[in-house]
Amino acid sequence: MMLSAFALIACCLASVVLGAPYSNFAQHHLPPTLLSSRHILRARSLTDLKDNAALTDCLLSSRLNVIDPARNDSSMYWDAAQSDNLAFHFHPYAIVYPRSTQEVSAAVICAAKNGNVAVAARSGGHSFGGFGSGGQDGSLIVDLVRLGDIHSDSAKGVANVGPGARLGDVVKGLWHSGKRGMPHGTCPPVGVGGHALCGGFGPTSRLWGMTTDNILEAEVVLSNGTVVVANKDNHEELFWGLRGAGSFFGIVTRFTFKTYDVAGPWVFLEYRWTSSLKTVADTVKTIEAIQAFAMSESNPAELGFHLQIQQPNMGDPPGGTVSMHMRGAFRGSLATFNGTVAQALQAELDRRGLPLVPDGVRTDEVDYLRLMEDWDDFGKADDKLDTLAERLRHNQFLARTSLTMDNTKALSTAAVDNVVQLLWQRAKASTSTENWAWNVYMELFGGSHARHLDKELVEASSMQQRDALWLIQTSVGMMPNTPFNIEARNLLQQIDAKWKQSLANDGIVEKSYSCYVDLSLGDEEWKEAYYGKEALERITILKHRYDPIDLFRNPHRIPRIDDKKTLSKIGGDAGDNYVAVSHPLPR
């Protein structure tokens, strides 16, 4: 059966295929390995997990809730070990569920003193590369699901949020505490912890900045178990690092976020083109029209949107070879939207002789809670932000991401045509028996009046490579527990190559986005793609100051500083009395 029945909506921005629910910690027995390839990593056998009795005893004596393969049945362990993306499955040494900052500290101390076992924090488990499960075998996973409290002070415009809170819970919690909100993505079960520390871009980021820009304070457990509070006045350099590269330095156990008044009207908008796209040229012209509008002064900060190109699915109007959706959020009334945004966008479409009206149009004036519910494509009808129900689903996908640097540089006609030609060819060649799907997602990252590109926010964050117009993601997905089709992997590589070629031909520098971690990037590639040389130098110094034993590590590791003069200047808060011990498991 063809996967057009699966709405390839951008929940988590790469959730190409959703599978059936699984039973949390109980019924669903996952396979011990997944198909091995360069992009789908084979998990090591459980017998390769070296016994570390001292670590186990330490965790248990600290009264932590522990799940490991030696003490729990395979079903419970597999479920506890699993990340959202089944394409990357790893075998942690153990998974712990702390109930307080003190218990997080105890777990960290146990790992540091008993073999320097790699520690990975997991807020929601939606890392594209499975980093929430370590990104490698043998890690200690600190699952923060029990640290998910949300306390909003609407009068002060701030909220204390636990890292284990899911975005859907944040929406509801802030809304019901004085109709407040904050910028973040649109996938309800994503954990706010990882999301905030790597960036956190969403439809209101052009208005309010990214999630990471709105962190006012963070409580952090360092590698020696010390708990520090970082803000603009205390551990200010660590505060800078946390806002964009936070997973390298410790485990955040509490955030204080700035919140915003979200009362009043919003507009949920969705345009769908399917049968009206008769040719490749029609598709290219439509993308060009939307891009021209995005770069014009008519595009207000109050508007955020993305484009999604895929094969038509059951939610699309009938007919057509490819489907393109424009989905967005506008802060204001429908009358204002129609009199400004809609008119300006329509003018760009008319200028290219395109259809006056897309095949499907929806523009509804709603409140903020309804806006977020409408964006949730996979929730229950009676609770579209039910994060418990939605986290019981898994995806299996591979993705590539391009951040097109220089907000003033538009994609040329030739560049867009180069990619769209391939998409049309693939769509025409598809059959009704395919069990995989593809998706190209173009999120307007920049455009006119984008708040998160302001100099003050860029300088205050370790995510400094922001001067970009488009955040482009290409993904292919399979049903969970289905080996990846070689044709799907090849198409992903082909589309990604087309984007790279097109950007290079246009003189557009390609970077990437660390929230969409990509294990296909080489060791030097990901550092430059996510951070750039100057930011990486500061991040490296911070890493050795706050985590000198490299406890918080995964396949994307910060390089060691071996220069003695540099080391003597760094000092540190986390290295006292600790010596890095060689660990028998791979790092």
From TrEMBL:
It holds the Pfam family BBE. One of its GO terms (molecular function) is FAD binding. Keywords: FAD, Flavoprotein, Oxidoreductase, Signal. It comes from the Eukaryota. The keyword Zinc-finger does not apply. Residues 88-262 form the FAD-binding PCMH-type domain. The keyword Signal applies. Its cofactor is FAD. Residues 1-19 form the signal peptide. Belongs to the oxygen-dependent FAD-linked oxidoreductase family. This is FAD-binding domain-containing protein.
